[in-house]
Amino acid sequence: MTHHEGPDHDHDLDDDLEIPAPGLHRPRRLRRSGVLRDLVAETRLHPDMFCQPHFVLPGEHRREDIGSMPGIVRETADMLVKTVEADLKLGLRHVLLFGLPAEKSPTAESALDLDGPVPVAIRTLKDAFGQDLLVSADICLCAYTDHGHCGVIEGETVDNDKTLPILAGMASACALSGVDIVAPSDMMDGRVGAIRVALDLQGLEHVAIMSYAAKYASAYYGPFREAADSAPAFGDRRSYQMDPRNAREALREVQLDLDEGADIVMVKPALAYLDVIRRVREAVHVPVACYNVSGEYSMVKAAAAAGLVDLPRIVMENLHAMARAGADVLISYHGREVLAEGWL
Ligand code: PBG
Ligand code: ZN
Description:
Layout: H1 13-16, H2 34-40, E1 50-57, E2 63-65, E3 73-76, H3 77-90, E4 94-99, H4 117-129, E5 134-139, E6 153-154, E7 157-158, H5 160-176, E8 181-184, H6 191-201, E9 208-215, H7 222-227, H8 248-260, E10 264-268, H9 274-283, E11 288-292, H10 294-305, H11 311-325, E12 329-332, H12 335-340
Parallel strand pairs: 1-3, 1-4, 1-12, 4-5, 5-8, 8-9, 9-10, 10-11, 11-12
Antiparallel strand pairs: 2-3, 6-7
Helix pairs in contact: 3-4, 5-6, 8-9, 9-11
Bound molecules: ligand PBG and zinc ion.
Zinc ion (ZN) binds near residues 140, 142 and 185.
């Protein structure tokens, strides 16, 4: 048996070691009080930065909870207008609309329907609130195709070029209904250019494009696919959405979208891609949006419900991280609770 020398209990650290005081440099001076920390805060969130996503049902008088996303609903345009009216009073002035069409088909005909849920919601909201509300519409086919892919299928693959005119038609239906911004999220090559040309030919050059420029093939979209009923029936989206291992490629996607006429570029998801937000912010001179997606939202809600984390603190930490990384626009399901609960 080996004998260990026990700790020397007579040993006095203070006598042996001269520990230097910090001297002049004490960053803690600026952390002494809340008002002082607020004075020197480098990142500030403002209600104007937020965009609240909504899921729109066809018809009237219906509102449904979404099991995968506590606190978020699907609702018809007549109900949505009441929700948005309340949000406007909180200072939440920007919405992003997703539709759940009555009918799905291989080539997404219902995406072009002027009486589809999203065009109806756009007209209802614009009639009610005009320029007091900024309305964006997601442009993608996955909720409108019976196979759940973001474009039309040809053989075994999503056919890029056959999808473009349908996306342009969907964007046109939204633009003709009065939308302020169209937000293509499909990740087909050339879709920004196709949409820009189609809108301009119809005298809709004032409608802006916020492109999901760096959109990754992400497991964080899980809860959304229940909300929007848009899960692919076969395969996955990795042949069109970006590989999570790539960041340089995001800069290429962003540059292409800008060359095609994008006005705002988006990085999606947000939290696992803060480095991409930062790099895009440093590479371009247009506004950068980020999408704090459904999985990020639902994980935070579930962890807070389980008592593992403090909801207001973790939500605000996450949102500040996105802004600190360089995002100008925060698309987040948390927007309403942040403003309603006074967390800002
Ligand atoms: C449609 C679309 C998706 C999201 C936004 N637009 C889903 C997907 O690409 O599978 C995800 C939003 C979220 O998870 O909150 N293409
Ligand atoms: Zn899609």
